[in-house]
Amino acid sequence: MAVVLSNVSFKHNKNDKKKTISNISLEIYDKNICGIIGKSGSGKTTLLELIDGLVKPNEGKVLIDDIDINKDKSIRKEIGFVFQFPEQQFFEQTVKKEIEFSAKNYGIKKEKVKDVIKLVGLKEEILNKKLNNLSNGERRMVAIASILIYNPNIILFDEPTIGLDYKNKKKVIQLIKNLKNRFGKTIIIVSHDVDLLYELCDKLIIINDGKVLLYGDALSVYKEMDIINKYNIPVPEIVLFENYVKSNKNIKLMNSKTVNDLIKEVYRNV
Length: 270
Hints:
Blueprint: E1 3-10, E2 21-28, E3 33-37, H1 44-52, E4 59-64, E5 67-68, E6 79-82, H2 95-105, H3 112-119, H4 136-148, E7 154-158, H5 166-181, E8 186-190, H6 194-200, E9 203-208, E10 211-217, H7 218-221, H8 225-230, H9 237-249, H10 259-269
Protein backbone atom coordinates (compact mmCIF):
# COMPACT_ATOMS: atom_id res chain seq x y z
CA MET A 1 0.00 0.00 0.00
CA ALA A 2 1.22 3.49 -0.85
CA VAL A 3 1.17 6.43 1.58
CA VAL A 4 0.53 9.92 0.22
CA LEU A 5 0.90 13.15 2.19
CA SER A 6 -0.77 16.09 0.48
CA ASN A 7 0.15 19.58 1.79
CA VAL A 8 0.27 18.28 5.36
CA SER A 9 0.96 20.71 8.20
CA PHE A 10 0.66 20.15 11.95
CA LYS A 11 1.06 22.03 15.23
CA HIS A 12 0.99 20.40 18.65
CA ASN A 13 -0.60 23.60 19.93
CA LYS A 14 -2.71 25.72 17.59
CA ASN A 15 -1.37 28.86 19.27
CA ASP A 16 2.24 27.96 18.37
CA LYS A 17 3.75 30.24 15.76
CA LYS A 18 6.00 27.46 14.42
CA LYS A 19 4.63 24.35 12.73
CA THR A 20 5.98 20.95 13.79
CA ILE A 21 5.29 19.69 10.26
CA SER A 22 5.13 22.30 7.50
CA ASN A 23 3.42 21.75 4.15
CA ILE A 24 4.78 18.29 3.34
CA SER A 25 3.74 16.60 0.10
CA LEU A 26 5.24 13.26 -0.93
CA GLU A 27 4.44 9.65 -1.81
CA ILE A 28 5.92 6.63 -0.04
CA TYR A 29 5.72 3.81 -2.52
CA ASP A 30 4.10 0.41 -2.07
CA LYS A 31 6.42 -2.42 -0.95
CA ASN A 32 9.33 -0.04 -0.34
CA ILE A 33 11.41 0.62 2.75
CA CYS A 34 11.55 4.35 3.40
CA GLY A 35 13.82 5.92 6.02
CA ILE A 36 13.31 9.29 7.71
CA ILE A 37 16.47 11.13 8.76
CA GLY A 38 16.79 14.36 10.70
CA LYS A 39 18.12 15.95 13.85
CA SER A 40 16.29 15.63 17.18
CA GLY A 41 13.16 17.77 17.14
CA SER A 42 12.99 17.90 13.35
CA GLY A 43 9.53 16.28 13.24
CA LYS A 44 10.42 12.67 12.39
CA THR A 45 8.25 10.91 14.98
CA THR A 46 5.40 13.36 14.45
CA LEU A 47 5.44 12.39 10.78
CA LEU A 48 4.96 8.73 11.78
CA GLU A 49 2.11 9.71 14.12
CA LEU A 50 0.38 11.57 11.28
CA ILE A 51 0.72 8.56 8.98
CA ASP A 52 -0.71 6.28 11.69
CA GLY A 53 -3.58 8.65 12.43
CA LEU A 54 -2.53 9.17 16.05
CA VAL A 55 -2.63 12.92 15.39
CA LYS A 56 -4.60 14.80 12.76
CA PRO A 57 -3.06 17.36 10.41
CA ASN A 58 -4.20 20.96 10.83
CA GLU A 59 -3.96 21.25 7.07
CA GLY A 60 -3.77 18.73 4.22
CA LYS A 61 -4.52 15.03 3.94
CA VAL A 62 -2.86 11.70 4.72
CA LEU A 63 -3.99 9.09 2.20
CA ILE A 64 -3.55 5.32 2.32
CA ASP A 65 -4.27 3.99 -1.17
CA ASP A 66 -6.35 7.13 -1.87
CA ILE A 67 -8.34 6.77 1.39
CA ASP A 68 -8.14 9.68 3.85
CA ILE A 69 -7.06 8.07 7.12
CA ASN A 70 -8.86 10.73 9.16
CA LYS A 71 -12.19 10.28 7.35
CA ASP A 72 -12.27 6.49 7.11
CA LYS A 73 -10.64 5.11 10.24
CA SER A 74 -11.18 1.51 9.13
CA ILE A 75 -8.04 1.91 7.00
CA ARG A 76 -5.97 2.16 10.19
CA LYS A 77 -6.09 -1.63 10.53
CA GLU A 78 -3.67 -1.68 7.59
CA ILE A 79 -1.04 0.15 9.66
CA GLY A 80 1.13 -1.16 12.48
CA PHE A 81 3.25 1.14 14.65
CA VAL A 82 6.23 -0.30 16.57
CA PHE A 83 7.16 2.30 19.18
CA GLN A 84 10.69 3.25 20.19
CA PHE A 85 10.13 1.87 23.69
CA PRO A 86 8.21 -1.46 23.48
CA GLU A 87 6.72 -1.09 26.95
CA GLN A 88 4.70 1.88 25.65
CA GLN A 89 2.55 -0.47 23.58
CA PHE A 90 2.19 -3.31 26.11
CA PHE A 91 -1.11 -3.81 27.97
CA GLU A 92 -0.68 -7.26 29.57
CA GLN A 93 1.84 -9.00 31.83
CA THR A 94 2.86 -12.07 29.82
CA VAL A 95 3.97 -12.47 26.22
CA LYS A 96 1.06 -14.76 25.35
CA LYS A 97 -1.61 -12.48 26.82
CA GLU A 98 -0.08 -9.44 25.13
CA ILE A 99 -0.17 -10.93 21.65
CA GLU A 100 -3.61 -12.48 22.28
CA PHE A 101 -4.84 -9.02 23.33
CA SER A 102 -3.80 -7.63 19.95
CA ALA A 103 -5.27 -10.64 18.13
CA LYS A 104 -8.64 -10.25 19.91
CA ASN A 105 -8.89 -6.58 18.94
CA TYR A 106 -8.65 -7.53 15.28
CA GLY A 107 -10.68 -10.74 15.34
CA ILE A 108 -7.66 -12.99 14.82
CA LYS A 109 -7.69 -16.60 16.09
CA LYS A 110 -5.50 -17.23 19.11
CA GLU A 111 -3.86 -20.16 17.30
CA LYS A 112 -1.96 -17.62 15.18
CA VAL A 113 0.05 -16.50 18.22
CA LYS A 114 2.51 -19.40 17.89
CA ASP A 115 2.95 -18.70 14.19
CA VAL A 116 3.82 -15.04 14.71
CA ILE A 117 6.24 -15.86 17.54
CA LYS A 118 8.12 -18.15 15.16
CA LEU A 119 8.04 -15.48 12.46
CA VAL A 120 9.99 -13.04 14.65
CA GLY A 121 12.51 -15.72 15.60
CA LEU A 122 11.41 -16.48 19.16
CA LYS A 123 10.76 -19.88 20.71
CA GLU A 124 7.32 -20.96 21.96
CA GLU A 125 8.62 -21.22 25.53
CA ILE A 126 8.72 -17.42 25.72
CA LEU A 127 4.92 -17.19 25.57
CA ASN A 128 4.49 -17.84 29.30
CA LYS A 129 7.22 -15.41 30.37
CA LYS A 130 6.44 -12.07 31.96
CA LEU A 131 7.21 -9.08 29.77
CA ASN A 132 9.20 -7.44 32.58
CA ASN A 133 11.58 -10.41 32.65
CA LEU A 134 12.51 -10.23 28.96
CA SER A 135 15.72 -8.82 27.50
CA ASN A 136 15.63 -5.67 25.37
CA GLY A 137 15.90 -7.76 22.22
CA GLU A 138 13.07 -10.08 23.26
CA ARG A 139 10.79 -7.18 24.18
CA ARG A 140 11.42 -5.59 20.79
CA MET A 141 10.51 -8.80 18.98
CA VAL A 142 7.37 -9.27 21.08
CA ALA A 143 6.33 -5.70 20.26
CA ILE A 144 6.78 -6.46 16.55
CA ALA A 145 4.88 -9.77 16.93
CA SER A 146 1.93 -7.99 18.55
CA ILE A 147 1.72 -5.86 15.40
CA LEU A 148 2.28 -8.65 12.88
CA ILE A 149 -0.50 -10.78 14.41
CA TYR A 150 -3.10 -8.71 12.51
CA ASN A 151 -0.99 -8.60 9.32
CA PRO A 152 -0.92 -4.86 8.47
CA ASN A 153 0.32 -3.87 5.03
CA ILE A 154 2.18 -0.79 6.31
CA ILE A 155 4.57 -1.02 9.27
CA LEU A 156 6.05 2.03 11.02
CA PHE A 157 9.21 1.66 13.11
CA ASP A 158 10.44 4.35 15.50
CA GLU A 159 14.12 3.65 16.30
CA PRO A 160 13.79 -0.16 15.90
CA THR A 161 17.40 -0.98 16.84
CA ILE A 162 18.05 1.53 19.60
CA GLY A 163 19.41 -0.03 22.81
CA LEU A 164 20.08 -3.41 21.17
CA ASP A 165 23.37 -5.29 21.06
CA TYR A 166 24.91 -6.29 17.73
CA LYS A 167 23.28 -9.74 17.66
CA ASN A 168 19.74 -8.49 18.28
CA LYS A 169 20.22 -5.52 15.97
CA LYS A 170 21.05 -7.91 13.12
CA LYS A 171 17.94 -9.96 13.92
CA VAL A 172 15.69 -6.90 13.68
CA ILE A 173 17.33 -5.81 10.43
CA GLN A 174 16.88 -9.26 8.88
CA LEU A 175 13.24 -9.34 9.99
CA ILE A 176 12.58 -5.96 8.37
CA LYS A 177 14.17 -7.20 5.13
CA ASN A 178 11.97 -10.32 5.23
CA LEU A 179 8.83 -8.26 5.82
CA LYS A 180 9.53 -6.38 2.62
CA ASN A 181 11.02 -9.08 0.38
CA ARG A 182 8.95 -12.07 1.49
CA PHE A 183 5.67 -10.48 2.54
CA GLY A 184 5.59 -7.31 0.43
CA LYS A 185 5.12 -4.87 3.30
CA THR A 186 5.52 -1.11 2.99
CA ILE A 187 7.91 -0.08 5.77
CA ILE A 188 8.73 3.37 7.14
CA ILE A 189 11.60 3.74 9.62
CA VAL A 190 12.71 6.65 11.79
CA SER A 191 16.23 6.20 13.13
CA HIS A 192 19.31 8.17 14.19
CA ASP A 193 21.37 5.29 12.74
CA VAL A 194 21.99 6.81 9.31
CA ASP A 195 24.33 3.96 8.36
CA LEU A 196 21.49 1.49 8.89
CA LEU A 197 18.99 3.55 6.88
CA TYR A 198 21.44 4.19 4.05
CA GLU A 199 22.03 0.46 3.59
CA LEU A 200 18.50 -0.78 4.27
CA CYS A 201 16.16 1.72 2.63
CA ASP A 202 14.96 2.14 -0.95
CA LYS A 203 14.08 5.79 -0.32
CA LEU A 204 15.18 8.39 2.20
CA ILE A 205 13.41 11.48 3.51
CA ILE A 206 15.68 14.17 4.94
CA ILE A 207 13.64 16.40 7.24
CA ASN A 208 14.63 19.61 9.03
CA ASP A 209 12.38 21.86 11.17
CA GLY A 210 9.32 20.04 9.89
CA LYS A 211 10.15 20.51 6.22
CA VAL A 212 11.40 17.99 3.66
CA LEU A 213 14.86 18.99 2.43
CA LEU A 214 15.46 15.96 0.22
CA TYR A 215 13.52 12.89 -0.85
CA GLY A 216 14.68 10.14 -3.20
CA ASP A 217 16.76 7.00 -3.42
CA ALA A 218 19.59 6.77 -0.90
CA LEU A 219 22.44 7.20 -3.38
CA SER A 220 20.89 10.29 -4.98
CA VAL A 221 20.00 11.96 -1.68
CA TYR A 222 23.58 11.80 -0.40
CA LYS A 223 24.96 13.33 -3.57
CA GLU A 224 23.39 16.62 -2.44
CA MET A 225 26.19 17.34 0.02
CA ASP A 226 25.80 21.13 -0.17
CA ILE A 227 22.30 20.82 1.32
CA ILE A 228 23.36 18.05 3.72
CA ASN A 229 26.24 20.13 5.08
CA LYS A 230 24.26 23.38 5.22
CA TYR A 231 21.70 21.85 7.58
CA ASN A 232 24.21 19.67 9.46
CA ILE A 233 22.45 16.44 8.56
CA PRO A 234 24.29 13.27 9.72
CA VAL A 235 26.16 11.44 6.96
CA PRO A 236 26.71 7.64 6.66
CA GLU A 237 30.28 6.44 7.20
CA ILE A 238 30.39 4.94 3.69
CA VAL A 239 29.60 8.32 2.13
CA LEU A 240 32.16 10.08 4.34
CA PHE A 241 34.82 7.59 3.27
CA GLU A 242 33.99 7.90 -0.44
CA ASN A 243 34.08 11.69 -0.23
CA TYR A 244 37.38 11.61 1.68
CA VAL A 245 39.01 9.36 -0.94
CA LYS A 246 37.76 11.62 -3.71
CA SER A 247 38.97 14.89 -2.16
CA ASN A 248 42.24 13.69 -0.64
CA LYS A 249 43.35 10.89 -2.98
CA ASN A 250 41.66 12.04 -6.19
CA ILE A 251 40.07 8.60 -6.55
CA LYS A 252 36.39 8.47 -7.45
CA LEU A 253 34.71 5.34 -6.17
CA MET A 254 31.36 4.12 -7.39
CA ASN A 255 28.67 4.84 -4.80
CA SER A 256 28.18 1.81 -2.53
CA LYS A 257 25.32 1.09 -0.12
CA THR A 258 26.98 -1.71 1.84
CA VAL A 259 30.41 -2.22 3.38
CA ASN A 260 30.94 -5.34 1.26
CA ASP A 261 30.29 -3.38 -1.93
CA LEU A 262 32.64 -0.64 -0.73
CA ILE A 263 35.42 -3.16 -0.05
CA LYS A 264 35.05 -4.55 -3.57
CA GLU A 265 35.16 -1.05 -5.03
CA VAL A 266 38.30 -0.16 -3.04
CA TYR A 267 39.94 -3.39 -4.18
CA ARG A 268 39.19 -2.60 -7.84
CA ASN A 269 40.43 0.98 -7.69
CA VAL A 270 43.02 1.19 -4.93
